Amino acid sequence: MHKLSTKKAFIAYFAFGWLLLIVADRVDELRVYQGATIAVTTLAIASIILLTGYSGQVSLGQGAFLAVGAYAAALSQTYWQSPFWFTLLIAILVSAAFGFILAFAAGRMSGPYLAGTTLALAVGLPTLANQFSFLGGETGLVYDAGLPPERFGEEFTLYKWFFWIAAFVVLIAMFLLRNLLNSRFGRTWKALRANSTAASLCGVNVAQSKITAFTISAGVAGLAGALLGMVSIVAPSAFPLSLSFTIITGAILAGVTSLLGSMLGAVILVVIPEIADVIAHQLGDSEKITTNLPGFIVSVLLILTVLFSPNGPAEAMRKRKEQHAKH
Q1: How many domains does the chain have?
Q2: Per the domain annotation, does 174 fall within a domain?
């Protein structure tokens, strides 16, 4: 049964990937860029869902791991001339190692203490990046995926190439995460989140399980950071504290227990500025409205989600589907 569901999931991911590539070839540059941003944000939100929704650990500074992954990838490309695909692997390994080191503290802390530690990292790391010249300072480092293959033709732009890469990498990562969370690791993490004491009495090594979850989550975030560096820049300004809060917001809107819902959260975050622009235009293009409206819309959505669907719309739809199936 599990193998059958995995096979169906693979077919679904594969078909969805082809659909994305076909659509990306028929839309303008802005939409393609937004599509790449949605893909990267989806993966970043998925790292929070793995950490919080499954193992019950809270991180308020996930943007720090994105920064570590982005800088690791950019440094390996800049100073070692590593192939692009290898730099993605380096981003995963370095950020996972960074998370593993932090996880020793995370295994002994919980609640506000762990959240405060990760928050401090998100605040401090961009500042540290300005102190070392080899990290590029404020201007940052150049990190790119190279030019698209000539056989794709002149109309195949650089943004389309970025989208293809981001979509391909994120789909593979999400498929692997889906299998991981459906395995005994995912079940163990769920038991930890529900009741760590009961899980310990059942023979679960609580500290080791938390360290594993934290390490994998950091690696996933690092991969998202490398992809973000590809579509933007690798500089302190690309990884502000607000990035961590944006990722958390997307996770809450999607539902912290729903991996597939992470895409919904990413879409909402990317679409909200456009909706805000349209509303601001209708209200007279006031600079004050244009600046504050996106944050206001996000705040309203968060309040509505907490009040009416605390586990997120994706989880609510899944439960409704299960209830219909029973009847």
Answers
A1: 1
A2: yes
User: Do residues 223 and 96 touch, judged by C-beta distance below 8 A?
Assistant: no
pTM of the model: 0.90
Residue-level pLDDT, tens digit, the chain, 327 residues: 344 478 888 888 888 888 888 888 788 888 899 999 999 999 999 999 999 888 888 888 899 999 999 999 999 998 899 999 999 999 999 999 999 988 876 556 556 677 778 888 888 887 777 777 788 888 888 888 887 887 777 778 888 889 999 999 999 999 999 999 989 888 888 888 877 778 888 888 888 888 899 999 999 999 999 999 998 889 888 898 889 988 998 888 888 888 888 888 899 888 888 888 888 777 776 777 777 777 788 888 888 777 776 666 666 666 676 666 666
The Cα 18–Cα 22 span in angstroms is 6
Contacts by 74-77, CB closer than 8 A, 24 or more apart: 74/136, 74/140, 74/141, 74/142, 74/143, 74/229, 74/234, 75/134, 75/135, 75/141, 77/143
Angstrom distance (rounded) from CA 179 to CA 285: 47
Q: Judge whether 154 lies within some domain.
A: yes
Nearest by Cα to 241 from 97, 118, 98: 118
Residue range of the domain that includes 53: 2-240
Residue 262 lies in a domain: no
Full DSSP string of 234-280? BSGGGS-HHHHHHHHHHHHHH-TT-STHHHHHHHHHHHHHHHHHHHH
In a domain, 297, yes or no: no
Closest CA to 297 of 321, 270, 259, 323: 270
- Gap between the Cα atoms of 231 and 135, Å rounded: 18
